[in-house]
Amino acid sequence: MKKSKVKNKRKKPDIVNQRTGESWVYTKTVRNHFFKPRNLLIQAPDSAKYDSEGVVGSPACGDVMRVWLRVDPETEKIKEFKWRTFGCASAIAATSMLSVMVAEKGGMKLAKAMEIKPQDITARLGGLPNRKIHCSVLGDKALRAAINNWFKKTEQFSRIIPESARIIDPNTKTTDADIEEAVLEGALTLADVQKRTKVGIGYPQCLPETEELIKFYKEKYFGK
Amino acid sequence: MAKKIYYFDYASTTPLDKRVFGAMKPFFMEDFGNPSNLYSLGHRARKAVDAATKKITGILGCKPEEFIFTASATEADNLALLGIARANKNLGNKIIISNVEHRGILAASQVLAKEGYEVAKLPIDKSGLVNPEKLAELLDEKTILVSITYADSETGTIQPIKKIGGLIAEFRRNRNRATPYFHTDAAQAANYLDITVNNLGVDLMTLSAQKIYGPKGVGGLYIRRGTAIQPIIYGGGQQHNIRAGTENVPGIVGFGEAMRIARKDKSKEWARLEKLRDKLENGIIERVDKVLVNGNQAKRLPNFTNLSILDIEGEAMLLYLDARGIIVNTGSACNSQTLEPSYILTAFGRPYEYIHGSLRFTLGRKTTEEDVAYVFKNLPPIVKKLRRMSPLNLKLGENRKMSLPKAFVGGQTPHFLRKKG
Fold first, then answer.
1. What is the pLDDT of residues B209-226, one digit of tens each?
2. Taking a contact as any Cβ pair under 8 Å apart, which residues of chain B between 326 and 355 contact chain A?
3. CA-based R_g, chain A, Å
4. Which of A79, A95, B133, B215 is 20 to 30 Å apart from B280, CA to CA?
């Protein structure tokens, strides 16, 4: 992410937080996709036109993404990707960019699309302010939800990859999703994650696994 | 790109008044002396500081030595809370604040909680006001300080400071005690409201220069004579040993002049801005559906309107408006450091869905009819465009129940809800 940030020389601070003075920098690409979103679903969603649909997020959290897919059953390539997003600039830009990524060059294969990571999207955007990676995380989740729905529809149940939470620490009921969220919020060490989740306090057996998860999510969201 | 800006964020900061700048100018390069020095250069600086102080204290109706200059309203808030609490430890350990205080109060109260003080938070009632009766229930002999904002920084809702001041004075009289002291943050209010300290019955009051067309980097705290307070900054004993450090001479001169001008135009500006604000608010509601007003509409600063525009997100709106030269603010989580939605709008009982779509317009001295007309022309198409992008279609009036604790990562409770548990 850092590398791509350097590439974008024309950075202009967009918003300066009134309380901290920290500027939030959006790259030219982000601005472009935010102001001119691609592949937006304009008309009312027509279920006959699309093969599957995926929704993720909640309005209370400030981000909801809904995507529609048209898939070629022969090649399993995504022929069309339409979306709607409720959220901030980076959420809108990230969904727009994702729609370009999966539908370009004749369409991406489902198996490959399943593996899109948030940092793939942010890299294409030329980077996002660190805290904002939170928002773009939704796009790939919505896409996976839609692909899973397509597998369901085509009765390929074995190919569905559910995104469920798994309990890591039965004492504090901490799940892998809790750890994922802690990492996303910037807790990158075991001590920081423990501060937020209380994982492993009174159940140290789970600590090696917790450390593994932190490492995994750190790489997933922030690169190496 | 020197395009015209349409500034609607006067609650964040105000442009420096030309007359204020003129008054400040000589004290940067010519009369640059340190007011603590006895030679003539220092003496001229001292005289300028004293004159500026008197301009302010004349308006507050207090003695010059009862006013301390700080580097910001935040510092003044910190000094009030930390200074009073630490100096009056022997009298009690409880402080009471409302849940719509400025961060300067909130963060300082958290420091005090860590030091072992009891911090009681008084929630505002449904109308957005602090209920004096509820405050009376919380008051006890342990209470050493009550701090209630004069008008909050998100909705501009005006709190019944005079009533609360009376209530606290009565409590003290009945028990023959010096405490609790009463502090109010009047940073947002100083342009428009009565800030005579004896009328209000406050013992401490925070002011800010940058909110009244003065310079940034200057604030101040009124401290009633006889109030026990401990400094938070130590050094050469300036400002009656309460706030050490060489006085910010040009800043203080500017603060004094800004205060004089603001008070001179007070009632005229109130009438002008209230009319303009109402026009803006009603005009937006007429042109855009699913909009609601946050805060107490009857008891509000004349330059505030905080609106929630449903189904779209505040930061996105803010950036689209900015591209058109319109500058506003939002309480949306996306626009905050912590990624949490505005705690003040939350205190006003708004569900998160509404807060994410909130826009704060604050008007000021340079706002004109033309600016308002420009918003009418540009806001509706932006809302239309963002609503077309949005998968949501919330309904007005479905308050509260809609906030399902379901988050974006792995179906979890949102982080800003969970922390409180």
1. 999 999 999 999 999 999
2. 329, 332-337, 339, 341, 351-353
3. 19
4. B215
pLDDT digits 0-9 by tens, B266-295: 989 999 999 999 999 999 999 999 999 999
- Does B315 contact A15 at a Cβ distance shorter than 8 Å? yes
DSSP string, A88-134: -HHHHHHHHHHHHHHHSTT--BHHHHTT--HHHHHHHTT---GGGHH
Provide the whole-model pTM. Answer: 0.84
CB-neighbour burial class of residue B189 (10 A; exposed 0-12, middle 13-18, buried 19+): buried
Using alpha carbons, select from A84, A107, A80, A103 the residue that is nearest to residue A37. A84
Point out the residue among A17, A35, A184 whose CB comes nearest to the CB of B409.
A184
Q: Which of B2, B7, B14 is nearest to B374 (CA)?
A: B7
Q: What pLDDT band is residue A164 in, cutting at 50, 70 and 90? A: low
Mean pLDDT of chain A: 80
In 3D space, the residue among B349, B353, B348 whose CA is nearest the CA of residue B332 turns out to be: B353
Closest partner residue to B356 (CB to CB) among A42, A62, A131 is: A62
Instruction: Tokens 């409302």: give the residue.
Output: B98
How distant is the Cα of B197 from the closest Cα of chain A, in angstroms? 28
- Whether A135 is a known active-site residue: answer yes
Answer yes or no: do B389 and A34 touch at CB < 8 A: no
Query: Hey, how many other C-beta atoms are within 10 angstroms of the C-beta on B61?
Result: 15
Nearest CA-CA distance, residue B408 and chain A, Å = 4
Do strands B304-309 and B291-294 pair parallel, antiparallel, or not at all (unpaired)? antiparallel
Yes or no, beta carbons of B315 and A89 under 8 Å apart: yes
Residue B313 burial (CB < 10 Å; 0-12/13-18/19+)? buried
pLDDT band at residue A212 using 50, 70 and 90 as cut-offs: confident
Q: Chain B interface, mutation test: which of A82, A86, A96, A195, most B Cβ atoms within 10 Å?
A: A86
Confidence of residue B241 (pLDDT cuts 50, 70, 90): very high
B-chain residues near A56 (CB < 8 A): 408
Identify the closest residue of chain A to B328 by CA–CA distance.
A15
Lowest-pLDDT range, A17-26, B87-96, B248-257?
A17-26
Phi and psi for B418 in degrees, rounded to 5? -70, -35
pLDDT at B361 over 60: yes
Catalytic residue among A15, A61, A160, A201: A61
Is the N-terminal amide bond of B341 cis, ω within 30° of 0? no
pLDDT > 90? residue B412: no
ipTM: 0.81
Nearest neighbour of B410 by CB, restricted to A15, A61, A180: A180
Q: Residue range B63-84: average pLDDT?
A: 98
Residue B260 clears pLDDT 80, i.e. is over it: yes
